[in-house]
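Subject: design request, 160 residues
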């Protein structure tokens, strides 16, 4: 049994994901849950359909996604921030999206998506108070996989 997180400190590229998919497919008893974030509040509600970003009522808004995490986190931007960027594009926003990262102190994790316009800013923020939520998500995925085989996502684990 394997619970894998394509995010955190090990952002996987397409070739790495394809390799893992091939390994899981070749082993009939293997099982895997892939997620940008194991926290049930953020992934997959924000990173999958329906569109993950608020839609601005004006055309001049600058879209952003901004992760904030502890200083020891090695990847910037995070895999979750990149998943949020992809979700915004899938949701129909075609303009370039500014992605910035903050790594400081012991911040467990905050992700904000938003649009900044000339007269107002619209944001949606998910804040993690501690990292236990990620452990709970991984444990829930492991329990859910009992009796299943193959490649799954957190959307499937959570029944979304």
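Subject: RE: design request

Done. Sequence follows.
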């Amino acid at each position: 049994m394997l619970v894998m997180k394509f995010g955190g400190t090990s952002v996987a590229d397409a070739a790495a994901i394809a390799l893992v998919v091939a390994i899981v497919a070749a082993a009939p008893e293997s099982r895997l849950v892939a997620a940008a974030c194991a926290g049930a509040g953020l992934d997959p509600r924000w990173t999958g359909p329906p569109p993950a970003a608020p839609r601005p009522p004006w055309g001049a808004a600058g879209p952003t996604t901004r992760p904030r995490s502890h200083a020891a986190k090695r990847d910037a931007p995070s895999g979750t921030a990149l998943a949020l960027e992809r979700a915004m594009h899938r949701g129909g926003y075609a303009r370039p999206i500014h992605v910035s990262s903050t790594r400081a102190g012991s911040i467990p994790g905050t992700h904000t998506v938003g649009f900044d316009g000339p007269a107002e800013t619209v944001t949606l923020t998910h804040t993690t108070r501690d990292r236990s939520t990620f452990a709970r998500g991984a444990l829930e995925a492991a329990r859910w996989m009992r009796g299943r085989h193959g490649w799954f996502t957190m959307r499937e684990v959570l029944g979304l």
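The beta strands are 2-5, 31-35, 62-69, 98-99, 102-103, 110-116, 121-127, 150-153.
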